[in-house]
Specification:
Blueprint: H1 2-5, H2 8-20, E1 29-33, E2 36-39, H3 53-80, H4 83-109, H5 116-125, E3 136-145, H6 151-159, H7 165-175, E4 181-183, E5 189-191, H8 192-198, H9 206-212, E6 215-219, E7 223-233, H10 241-274
Antiparallel strand pairs: 1-2, 3-4, 3-5, 3-7, 6-7
Helix pairs in contact: 4-10, 5-10, 6-7
């Protein structure tokens, strides 16, 4: 506890502060700035368990000094604040309270399960909005030591036309325990930038590269990079649904959140009106 860890310096501060105050609640005050008081309870959890007495005293002393400075500035600010700022503060408080209540209602009522059919329907209905801003591709790749004895077999699999699930399993077996990076998911879309960060191909024209290169193989002093580009789409193409899946799911969930909040607001308004808790006075 803080009270047990305080040094003589801190105890003196508390004693002096308490002595300078009147009775009642102020008996436990540590500091006062104008009409604002800092109490022992305010710092009860300030010092972590196990902190040395000297460090505890330093922490509390620093906290007290910071509090005093903040209160001095606050007093000056409060005496010079205008009515408009007071209104802004009240508006901010109202918005914060409403936001937190709405968030609580959403957490209680939101159904986070989104069916694949709902995602597909949204995609088909808004396909024109899903235009690519980056070049993307699907690729299977392996990054492994250049001296590996399995490199030629892996190259043979990835350069072939038959990249069946059976071939993928064989590829995983050949690269197991050797690959420092890999992707065996034929359906995974990624940006060209992400692909290039793993398979550091060099090109000044991404679109030309994607349209003309399907098999990738090169080595540096220690590492071999082997990849097969299965499919690609370039900027301004319609983005495939697999690439937009999570994005569409988030859109649908956000729509549900808005519906929940709107329904809550409507119900509260209807109840307040029914209870005659709303009046508009005409001048």
């Amino acid at each position: 506890m803080v009270k047990q860890a305080l040094t003589t310096i801190l105890i003196s501060i508390i004693a002096l502060a308490a002595a300078s105050c009147g009775g009642g609640k102020k008996d436990h005050a540590i500091a006062r700035v104008f009409d604002k008081y800092l109490y022992e309870d305010d710092i009860a959890d300030l010092v972590p368990a196990g902190t040395s007495p000297d460090d505890s005293a330093a922490l509390v002393s620093n906290y007290i000094q910071q509090w005093i400075q903040e209160m001095v500035v606050l007093e000056k600010a409060e005496n010079n604040i205008d009515d408009n700022f007071e209104k802004e503060l009240q508006n901010y408080k109202n918005s914060l309270i409403s936001y937190n209540y709405e968030r609580l209602i959403v957490e209680q009522q939101l159904d986070t399960n989104v069916a694949d059919s709902a995602i597909l329907n949204y995609y088909n209905s808004h396909k024109e909005t899903f235009t690519l801003k980056n070049n993307i591709l699907r690729a299977v790749y392996v990054v492994m030591p250049a001296k590996s004895k399995n490199i030629q077999k892996i190259r043979s699999i990835l350069s072939g036309n038959d990249l069946s699930d059976k071939k993928i399993v064989e590829l995983e077996h050949l690269a197991s325990n050797q690959a420092s990076a890999y992707n065996y998911d034929k359906n995974l879309w990624m940006t060209f930038f992400d692909f290039q960060s793993i398979i550091p191909v060099k090109t000044y024209n991404e679109e030309f590269y994607l349209k003309n290169i399907k098999n990738v193989f090169f080595t540096d002093n220690e590492t071999a990079y082997i990849a097969k580009i299965i499919d690609s789409k370039v900027t301004d193409d319609i983005s495939p649904i697999d690439f937009e899946y999570q994005n569409i799911k988030n859109i649908i969930l956000n729509q549900r959140k808005v519906e929940i909040v709107n329904k809550m607001r409507t119900n509260l308004m209807q109840k307040a009106e029914a209870d005659k808790e709303i009046e508009i006075y005409k001048k």
